[in-house]
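Cont'd.
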Amino acid sequence: MTAPLAPDTVLEVRNLTASFGPARRVAVNNVSFNVRPGEVLGLVGESGSGKSVTLRSVMGLVAASGAVSGQVLWQGRDLLQMSEPELRKVRGGQISMIFQEPMTALNPVLPVYVQIEENLRAHTDLDRRGRATRARELMDLVGIADAARRLRDYPHQFSGGMRQRVMIAIALASNPRLLLADEPTTALDVTIQDQILKLILDLRDQLAMSVVLVTHDLGVVAATCDRMAVMYAGRIVETGTVAQVFAQPAHAYTRGLLGSVPHAGTERSMLLSIEGTPPPPGALPDGCAFHPRCDFATDPCRVQRPDLAALAPDRSSACLNREAVIAAGSPI
Amino acid sequence: MQARTALPLTLIIGGGILLASMIIGLFPTLFAPYDPNVFDYNALLQAPTLAHPMGTDNFGRDVLSRVIHAYTVDMQIAIFATVVPFIAGTIIGALVGYAGGWAEALFGRVVDAVITFPFLVLVIAIVSVLGPGLVNMYIAVGIVGWVFYARIIATEIKVQKRLDYAAAGRAMGYTHLRIIFRHLLPNAITPAIVYWMTDMALAILLGSSLGYLGLGAQPPTAEWGVQIADGKNFMATAWWISVFPGLAIVVTGLGFSLTGDGLAEVLRTKR
Amino acid sequence: MHLASFIARRLLQLIPTLLFILIMVFALVRLLPGDPASAMLGDRALDADVARINKELGLDQPIVVQFVVFAKSVATGALGNSITLKVPVAELIATRLPITIVLTLMAALIAVLLAVPLAFVAATRRGRMADSAVRGAFQVGLSMPVFYLGLILLTVFGAQLRWFPVGGYGDGFLDHLHHLFLPALTLALSLSAVLMRNLRAAIIEVIDAEYVQFARAKGLPPGLILLRHVLRNALISTVALFGLSIGTLLSGAVITETVFAIPGAGRLMIDSIYARDYPVVQGLTIALAVLVSLTFLLTDLVQAWLDPRVAR
């Protein structure tokens, strides 16, 4: 059966694999990580690295053509083994998810109040008045002024940052223990980004939540995350605390990512300094998936796919040349 | 590294039906076992047999031969009733869409009025003035049918007009007419072509409806609608007179609409 | 508040459209060859008689005056008398138009009842057998002429099985519905083909939308997601299509009324056009145009109710 969770872990993902389509293209390959109470775990990578699919697989929200295997342990049970009705209780009530683009994630034809209220109705026992009060509280909590009136508005009547706050309010309505955030600030202006990130952190404190934050932006990671896991081509290639990884990256890819963050500004990073693009799921090279773009690649890299090896507790790397990378130091 | 995709199934089936229909329509005598207008008093109202696979009607005419010869008439209807609206509508739509302003506003009103009104009634009204017959039907459809094409083209031209290559054309000093017809229109015409397929199916429905009402093709011409009308009083005793021509309409209509769908799919992926 | 001003605005927009229709009707009828006087009296009428009828019908006045008189009489509902049937046009319309309206309403209802579940099944089982079956069905439905379908239904269910009467209108409300069922079904099958195609595409688009994903992420029961999130959004474009299909529906009604011998406005229109009964043609055209415009207004309102982005 399932081994008991370590005492200070709220979510444990073991050997998660997700593949799609008749060709069984693997988007998430044997991914394992855990989340501690009250921490913000960053899941970092370029688009196509499988980070969003990982998140959705946890909640069982992948497309119908997807096949997911592995274990996702939450409160003593494996989410992947749960029936749909049981999963529905978990979604929104214990684990919530917010999406990247609030304009498309919110139903445009329903007022905001309805979208909050349906979460409450699905996961709490509050009566109508209780729900109304809670909805107002939530709007205040996320910092939307004039809550009572705004509840009756439609999504298109809010600005981008406000809409994201609304989405957060909806997601947190039933006090989940874990928030999965899929690129929550990517579609927002830089100044608004900061506000939203700060909001997420505040809420984490107030509600004693854990957060898994998916992003491609290392600036965001630096500002909010406690620990991080770097993903490439469907695999995790490095883990550690943010401080450790930023100070001493142990994988060539991570080092490349850090090197592409502009030092002076708060630009959203396009990863310019690594030549080439990540391989699509169906066309992975032999050996280490990163070797065609890697400055540290040696012959073994082209042949043998490296496993994620532990360097220390909570610190691992899947790079055959990790000593060389560490010795090269951090680019920032 | 594009995978070579086969043509969509709809296009293949639809195209096949159309091809067969055209061949039958062009060479009916090759396929029809009998003369469609010959009466045979010895074989009135016969049920389908090997000699008469679709039976005979109340004049002893072989239904199969009439259905086959009707292909000529109905395929003609599909083409003639649509070509003039297509061309006229495209020209007017292109000009109006490009010009904008009051021309477009006026055009919008006319379009609203025509689309609002039941098309069949309009056509019948015009035909009743001109007199029954196929040619008058083509005229009637031409008078009101161009609006649908014009609307599609006008919308597309408006979109195309905003694109960079249109501005480039003006920067090079091309005349407006040249820009419209040599540059914008080839890009805008695709939805009109797809609609044309649907329109041809609709034309057959319209033509056969008028034939049924006695306003289109005139008896004794073999046309599917006329045939259905011929047989309507015999439905209980000799159902084959009306049923088979109706099936021909459905199959041919399917041919056009499937082709239209398939074409739309192919053109959509090309964009 | 919001909605009231929207309605008011749309009603005001109706006025120029109706005016335009009035002008068009007036002009078109005047342009038709064959003047009413000769039609009434026959070809061998004496000039004096023709002049007299012209005077009676006000046809000797200048055009503008004629139009004003015309507009005034339309506004007061005095639409003249039918030339062939010798009864007031307004009366004719009042008796025949409701029948057509009931027919089209029944057809619309049946069409919606058919289209929504079938479109839904096709959309959720996209690419599988059920989807192909439904799509095949609506392809056939779109290609089938209304008169053919009507004839077949009439023969099978009316003449052979005797479940329904073979035409006419009957007496009493329930009898009316009984008589109208087959013709309404005929119309409905054609209309539902159109609606189904559009609704299926709309549902597919909505199901893939991110707000449905978000709703699932909230752990909402699937039935609720379906009704509140999927269907409501998908219906928006279909309602618009419905409004646009009114013209086709009325054309179909004309044919259906002919096949099933129903004394409705559609048949009246055709007969009057044949007989050059101008007052009836005029009156009916205006009545139909008003009806269609009101239907557009109604569908616009439903759309605005469903989609708050519209009513801005």
